[in-house]
Amino acid sequence: MGKRYVVKIGSLGVSLVTGGPDRPKIEALAYDLKTLREQGHEVVLVSSGAINSGKPLVKHPGDKSFTLAWQQACAAVGMPILMKEYHQRLAPIVPALVLVTHDDFKARARFLNVRGTILTLLQNGILPVVNENDTVSTREITVGDNDQLAAMVAEAIDADRLILLTEADGLFDRDPREPGAQHLPVVDFREDFSLVKLAAGTSVGRGGMATKLQAVRRLTPLGQDVVIATFNAPHPVTRALAGEGGTLFKGDPREKVKKRKAWIASTARPGCAIVIDPGAAAVLKTHASLLPVGIRKVVGEFRRGDVVAVKCQRKTVAVGIVEYDARDVLRIMGKKTSELEALLSTVHAHVVIHRNNLFIGSET
């Protein structure tokens, strides 16, 4: 069975120091992403480099007070340039641009929309390219760097592994340019990095090893593995996944499923339930999604993104995160998925609860 990977590439992994796209590096990255897809894996790319790609085309005003506006203008020019390169290099795979801000991950409804969009693209064989919406982001809403954005995306879509590609080939106990620096090939999720002396970020990137370790700290306690490796290699992604370089940060094997199950089970909305028929209950035991056709009744008021109980013959058989509010479920219950577009103004999903957000019986 294929894995789900989030790959984050730093600015100098796709753009030149002097500005503009770095086509040989983009070609190497695209080759690896296509290889993973051919092997049956799902891939999401979190791409830096928009500002640097557009930099040669936007005149700098020379006034520091206009730096943010200049960077945003560069991003507006540079992102289409990068996407054109991705379209050409990834063909016949189609890339899709997903622009987000920090607020999209804080607001539940917008978070679900981001998650739903990315998962729908993956289901259709399209490769999502995610980036911060630099043209509108301000200090108050900015993600801050794409390492944190990549961690948010990996967490949101339940990725099996996050690969952070940067200049350094993994974690060292000090700046790798210093004599005697020791490479750390594998790091346990309990490591606090207190003995590691970190180097600064690059001249064109907002991150650095410190922001990457923040991403590691966010994901490994949840059970998700993270790899930090260099983009200065002929096959940067497949090499990193094969353990031929970089550093593997191992996620807590006990926590990924346990934490998610506990959260869903403990946040069910009181007095709310979806009542299904015995046939639908039997199908759910095969770890399938809950479809509208098997629903017979809606109890209580709930919103999209709430956790509700799923009942059959007065027994709770599952709990899960609903894709629709109570009123919409009432409209579509008992209907086939092919009828949803005629019944709803917005079709968020063709299931009421996706199997990834549904836990059955004793699992809860």
Corresponding CATH architecture of the largest domain? 3-Layer(aba) Sandwich
Question: Sheet bearing the most strands, described?
Answer: 8 strands, mixed
The CATH H-level homologous superfamily of the largest domain: Acetylglutamate kinase-like
Oligomeric state as shown: single chain
Summarize the entry for a quick read.
With 364 residues, the protein is of the alpha/beta class. The chain has two domains: 4-253, Carbamate kinase; 258-363, Archaeosine Trna-guanine Transglycosylase, Chain: A, domain 4 (Roll), CATH 2.30.130.10.
Describe the secondary structure blueprint for this structure.
Elements: E1 4-9, H1 23-38, E2 42-47, H2 50-54, H3 67-90, E3 95-100, H4 103-106, H5 108-123, E4 127-132, H6 146-156, E5 161-166, E6 171-172, E7 183-184, E8 186-187, H7 209-219, E9 225-230, H8 236-241, E10 247-249, H9 255-266, E11 268-276, H10 278-284, E12 295-299, E13 307-312, E14 315-321, H11 326-332, H12 340-343, E15 358-360
Helix pairs in contact: 1-3, 6-7
